[in-house]
Amino acid sequence: MAATTVNEKPQKISLKRIHYALMTDEQAENWGDVKTLTMPISLTLTPNFSEASLDAGDRVVDSEAQLDSITIAGETADLPTEVLVDWYGHKMSAEGGIITNSNDSPNAIAIGFESGSKLTWFFKSKLKPGEESAATRKKGETNYKIYPFSGEALPLIDGNIKHTVDTRDTGVVATAETFFATVTKATLKPPTP
What we know:
The chain is mainly beta.
């Protein structure tokens, strides 16, 4: 059998935009309109696995790992009021502010991002706010306030968690504008005969 060389391409690190859409129906798996945040700072994705090994005959004879969810952690330069309500389930006050209640529950959202030539949608995520701090400015120093968040990307009913497209791959016609226009479930490519 001949060896196949895989076409490796270096990937530039970047994080251009974060897109999200509220999941309007978790059972039917439908989403609302896509909204865009233009000032992301960082995004870290950590896969979470259920793992098991079978020991027999004084050695490991089998091992299994199954992807359960993906932890999402990030920071943005700003989280407008609308985003805080959409993501965290807070309520708007009549005065135009946000009411944070102990009964607030994060909304299920699709969250996507552009990183270099890769476009990614997580179909169902629930996010929570991170730690915020405020401090007195010291003479000669300037600091910026950042807005951290974290949460879990969960599987849909069919088990799909995310869909990633690399726009450099042959046959890919998606652009950031078309990919993030709506949240659409990915379909499997038919097997090659």
